[in-house]
Amino acid sequence: MRAPPALASAVARLGTESAFAVLARARELEASGRDVVHLEIGEPHAATPAHVAEAAFAAVRAGETGYCPSAGLGEFREVIADELARTRGVPVPVERVLVATGAKPFLLFTVLAVCEPGDEVVLPDPGFPIYESAIRYAGATPVPLTLREDSDFSFDPDELGALLGARTKLVILNSPQNPTGGVVPAADLEAAAEHIMGTSAWVLSDEVYARLLYEGAFASIASVPRLLERTVLLDGLSKTYAMTGWRCGYACVPEPLVEPLVRFFVNSTSCVPPFIQRAGIAALTGPQDDVERMVAELRVRRDLTVAGLEALPGVTCRTPGGAFYAFPNVASVGVDAETLAARLLEEAGVAVLAGSAFGAAGADHLRVSYATSPELLEEAFARMGALLAA
Ligand code: PLP
User: Fold this and answer.
1) 236 CB under 6 A from ligand 1?
2) 206 CB under 6 A from ligand 1?
3) Same domain assignment for residues 195 and 329
4) I need a labelling partner for 278 at 20 to 30 A (CA). Which of 52, 253, 309, 355 fits?
5) Structure confidence at residue 340 (pLDDT)
6) 3-state secondary structure at position 136
7) Which residues make beta-bridge pairs with 232?
């Protein structure tokens, strides 16, 4: 007998997101009759704005259901260029704007397009797990940039400077941040840009939570003069417009990356469905009241979450400045964070994630996604309190 067919060894280097695994286990428990409060998945509580959904329905009715250009519809790319230029305060050439099936393809394909074995990629630790997955898959080396809890999960620009070297191919930044809700101050982004300009590294600035900000004005590293030339400025519809399932993200990318990224799209998804892009045009150009309402609701839930977590024995929690995640420190609870997360799900019916799933610096923390109703949040904290008191 011949040996069974084998997988490519690189597949073993491809990581995953624990949120989907925990969600699957939570659903199993629910199927067996248990009640679970979901604080694991990173998804807005709100519905997609009605006028946005209507734009998609109208486009389907009008027959816009075929293939379309892989870079995105020209009209949508123009709307995105205007939006990015307005919100980041820099000229954004429409030829460099691309549309993909979510923000995620830009993460994977950018890393695949620029990294080779031996290259180093600086990434936030803790950080969105797909960064490390893509870097390892490409055979490159992840270089963690520690986010400091005592700086509300921002980083020290000089620490970033010390990590940069001749082998640094890419620097990934994310603000507002998953999993901590941290926001990098504008002055620190400017200092980071200074360091990066002295290297030949690309930058990927993941700004998918740009509009989910509770204090101050949004700051992007791409606003620093000349940095956009080497930056993938990434945003999308998923979080801002409660459109996670629609799969539509967009970016302004450096000129040399335009054609390679489009080729990755041609080789994988071909294009974002045109009716989804019509919805995207409606989202970016139509009324923004739904977004404003959602952010106001999230602010209330954030405050309720920080208060609820701080009231638990052994738990402390910084106040997140953006996104919809809290990252409480559970080092003093008396059980490690992985065990605590597992017991919260299995015994108390509260689904949260262990912080270590986001990198070594996430140890001793939980990630709590508070984009759910205030009633469910209260229920979750009551259940957590009962478990910790037992
Ligand atoms: N970047 C960050 C930091 C995220 O948290 C997420 C989703 O959780 C994504 C990117 C992926 O977004 P999308 O749904 O648009 O692919």
Assistant:
1) yes
2) yes
3) no
4) 253
5) 97
6) helix
7) 204
- Which residue type is seen at 10? A
146, two tokens: 């520690």
**CA of residue 357 to ligand 1 center, whole Å:** 15
Ligand 1 lined by 250 (C-beta under 6 Å): no
Q: Is 208 in the pocket of ligand 1 (CB under 6 A)?
A: yes
User: What sign results for the dihedral spanned by CA atoms 71, 76, 82, 85?
Assistant: negative
> From the first residue on, what is the mean pLDDT of each consecutive set of 10 residues in the chain (390 residues)?
91 92 96 97 92 98 98 98 97 98 98 97 98 98 98 97 98 98 97 97 98 95 96 98 98 98 98 98 98 97 98 97 98 96 97 97 97 97 95
3, part of any domain: no
User: Burial level of 91, CB count in 10 A (0-12/13-18/19+)?
Assistant: exposed
Ligand 1 atom closest to Cα of residue 248: 15
- 273 C-beta closer than 6 A to ligand 1: no
Rounded Cα gap, residues 113 and 116, in angstroms:
9
Ligand 1 site, residue 179, Cβ cutoff 6 A = no
Residue 323: domain span: 9-47+289-389
**How far is the C-alpha of 230 from the C-alpha of 145, rounded, in Å?**
20
Single out the residue in 264, 285, 306 at which a domain terminates.
285
Same domain, 186 and 325: no
Give residue for tokens 């986010």.
147
Beta-sheet strand order (sheet of 97-100)? 97-100, 249-252, 231-236, 202-206, 168-174, 120-125, 141-146
For residue 387, the model assigns a pLDDT of 96
Nearest CA to ligand 1 atom 8: 42
Q: Atom 12 of ligand 1 has which residue's CA nearest to it?
A: 103
Whether 58 is covered by a domain: the verdict is: no
Probe residue for ligand 1, chosen from 109, 128, 269, 369 as the CB with the greatest number of ligand atoms within 8 Å: 128
